[in-house]
Amino acid sequence: MPYIPNTDRDREEMLRVIGASSVEDLFSAVPAGVRLRGPLEVPGPLSEIELARHVGELAAMNRTAETETSFLGGGFYDHAVPAAVRHVTRLPHFYTAYTPYQAEASQGTLQAIYEFQSLIARLTDMEVANASMYDGATAAAEACLMALDRGSGRRRIVVASTVSPATRAVVRTYLLATGAEIVEVPHARGVTDAAALRDALSGASGLLFQHPNHFGLLEPAAALSAAAREAGALAIASVDPVSLGVLAAPGSYGADIAVGEGQSLGSPMGFGGPLLGFMAAGKKLVRRLPGRIIAATQDASGRRGYVMTLQTREQHIRREKAASNICTNEGLVALAATVYLSLLGKQGFRDLAVQITSKARYAAEALSGVAGVRRAFPGPFFREFVVELPMDARTAADELAKARIWPGTPCAPSFAGMERCLLVSVNEQHTRHDIDSLASALGALIASRRAP
Amino acid sequence: MTAPERRVLEPTVFELSSPGLRGYRLPPLDVPEADLAAAFGAEHLRREPPALPELTEPEVVRHFTRLAELNHHVDRAIYPLGSCTMKYNPKVNEDLAGLPGFARLHPDTDPRFCQGALALMVHLSEHLARISGMDEVSLQPPAGASGELAGMLVVRAHHTAEGNPRRKVVVPDSAHGTNPASLTLAGYEAVQIPSGPDGRIDLDALAKVTDADTAALMITNPNTLGVFETKVRAAIDVVHAVGGLVYLDGANLNATLGVVRPGDIGFDLMHFNLHKTFSTPHGGGGPGSGPLGVKSHLARYLPVPMPRRDEARSRGLEYYLDHDLPQSIGKVQSAFGNFLVAVKAYAYILTLGPEGLRRVAENAVLNANYLQARLAPHYELPYSGHCQHEFVLSASRQKEKGVRALDIAKRLLDHGLHAPTVYFPLIVKEALMIEPTETESRASLDAFADAMIEIAEAAAGAPESVTAAPENTPVSRLDEARAAKDLDVAWRER
After folding, report:
1. A361 lies in which domain range?
2. Does the predicted model carry a pTM greater than 0.90?
């Protein structure tokens, strides 16, 4: 047993100290009738060599952005992860520690999370942020719960239909038992129409919108926030943190709560997890925030230090009256984001957003230049955009995959009626050559299907 | 040294910033640079770039390395937090989860091109099912509390399908705080029952509150006092008799690996904590993973999608994602859960095998009993007898001298050790809840026991020497009241 250090002799001596004759004696409280007879039916044991070979084979069966030219996005992004981020998050001081219950022996984790909160507050232009949530979807869902929990008697959450399908699904699950009504408002030409919201917002608790939205389009974020405020509802903006290098921040356009997915900040996609939810708000909402919050304070000698604060909101103290049931969050992924943002810095982070903007625009123009292809929606966009093809998008994706190009995510079945539409996502790792290859392969495919 | 510097262990990353520096470069832009105002419209533009710090790579690495050195961690010494199972995190598992075939895999990848990842998820689910006696397991919940919420929503879906969601869920007073919080989020009312004098479920108390409005009983076994619920079968029968379901909080599964399978003895559903029982690192507070296992009668309610094996290859593929679950509670995470954490748990199970998993439980229980035996003469042990993987001491004797559980915890930090969980479970006054795990050696346990005994002796003779703790940590005791009052939760230039 490679991970059990006691020897047989240790065990004998320990049993003597305990006053038991065998390890079996220690299980005497487990009635015979509930015991498992026989060994567990699982494989193993494997040596490290055998394990690495087997798991390595499973990994090698998958095709990824490493092996294909991939334009998949839609909430999960293949940004380059700087080597220093990987090395810092591999320090055992961080990854083998736990929630900083003993502050004096956890100042590293506590200060890193405080810096994470500070960075999220700066990105979103909000006053306070929490220590992380599971992912952007659960962060949005928890924000909706905050909107419901205001003693107002209002029981309706309005959700823009341009919010990602996964986020909308998680919001529905989290609100299943609240008795709240969820109203999804349709989009017009890919974006939410603030004027059309008025009826739905009347008497609502909150409005959840995504900006840029699932189609990559910029929502009228200021008008949506204002419409929510006029109706007495909380405006919840789900934002792409990378976009905040160039786009206006939620705090500047009047959102009450900013949430989002932070995987793109220094963590790999990992088949969809672990991810990183973040949540920021104005100070007046701080006592209603879910999850851990770290605050700076002083020790007995006046030295700066950090602690978990406002814990009376949390489940381990408040139990059934807690603001949320969250306990373990995504600490190490938050650390990765903190290191990532520190490395890129003020200028580097803006450069990243500018490069993505430039490459996505170049890609949109290149694809729009392919005969029969057009952008499905006309408005300004960040990072990704929807193209409409003269053929079924799934078929096109399947065909191009043969040439090891993944052109994007088909919008159907998540969006009914968009069977010919493809969500194409571009990041800083794509070269002009990658984009040109996509355009020419798509052009050749469409031309071949037109030929008699 | 100037006074302000003496007051800061490590400046914030913002204080280390110098204008114009950067720690990472992008390649030159190989397409025309977009005009941002033209691309987005002036009203959407950010006026000032976010005020991120400006540092070079070595400065960033040094900053975070210096922060790292302020932490206690499992690779350094014992971390005996009760109910957290802070066991060693095998190194190879970190490497395997970092393989690009997993790390750079997009969740929308066509199932044809991610058979390896789907196979791993299906196999891990099957292994967890066989370890627990459950029939189906969803890996989607990203943490234990998420598994609890999903589980309670499954309970609700089941009763709703039977005609009435019912109103209440019973929890013992020794339950983890997440239990009542999760069931409340699922629309239930928590009905708390007192533990019996032996720390176990009081069957009479349970029977008294159990009726046709009882949706479920939610218990932890061994419970948070570290004792096995000897009457677990009878308790399950009481709830089943009224049509209720029984949920197991699997936080303490480490004690029963290969000894008891919850599914065999009547539990209807449970969550696992891969970051506890199955050795995946705790990450300073996540990422965890809280898979939900259910018996077959509840499988239709599991989160969507479910990775499955298709023996007949009717779709031409061995593994696929089943989205056709019309009665599912829906999604609890954006994709399929914390997949890279699942990779590590899968590797752990294969490394240990059936015999190894059983040895984990035996040695976890042996280690806990050894510590209990060494410490029982020095601290009050409210629930005696052999414990399972953890046990709870009370510092009530020490408190008479003015030394609280918190003081003992802080003095342990001075010894270079981590403290147990303190003030939980709530039913033990001045609780010290200790879980050593199987990966501690006897020498490590002795070092911890020696420190605890020394502290008990100091508390008896010179209590003020304990209440002054900690003295050898990077900071001394921190002012929590000031933290809550000032509420400095984001750095501002000062």
Report:
1. 69-80+345-450
2. yes
